[in-house]
Amino acid sequence: MTSRLANLRDLGNLPLARGGRTRPGVLLRSDAPYDGDLDPTGLPEGVSWPPAAVIDLRAERERVRSPYPWPTSTLTVAHELHDAGDLSRMPQLGLVAVYASILETAAERVTAVPGLLAPEGPTLIHCAAGKDRTGIVVAVLLLLAGVEPEAVVADYLLTAAQMDGVVARLTAAGGLKPGRSREEWLAAPEEAGRLVVDTVTAHPGGVEGWYVEHGGDPAALERFRARFVGGA
Fold first, then answer.
1. CATH fold for the domain made of 9-224
2. At 64, phi and psi to the nearest 5?
3. What are the pLDDT digits (tens) for 75-94?
4. What is the pTM for the complete model shown?
């Protein structure tokens, strides 16, 4: 089993549609950590670990099966998306349809995330693989920040290259569900990432209109943008 997070990356230095780039050290994404993991490598210089806050998108049964001993200095938030968008239906529906279901039925869970981010230091967002639930939430956050849509899709696609390590970790931890094939776990198809981008950007009020319509707090969004984008 890989002894470090297999799908961790900082979301800084992504291109903004209006020019400039996102700031490193604000937003991280990954697969689930396991007790005994070594500290990660490869984070940008100056990005601290452990993170200031962790938003865990897994279901309660997943968190109970694989708890992680974050230090008391790290704020941990359990913010489940699973019940509203049940990923166990993926073999029957297909990944794109499951993503569409999550965006339809769990939109208010997605739009709550800006209000959960740490006011200082990095926030880590993760689920089990760091691909589906994390992929949706992160894509929406990047769009809200003004990241170029094609760069949002490109970030989603980066996960595919990490999935061998992710699946090895999940298998060792007993988290690979029966009935869901290795190929289904490995899949991070472009059409799935693009579905998220197209759904959110198609709103008549744009990305921010979608966010507000689904319960997003404008003040939380402005705080997030100030940290992640600032005057870029």
1. Protein-Tyrosine Phosphatase; Chain A (3.90.190)
2. -70, -40
3. 999 999 865 345 555 555 68
4. 0.94
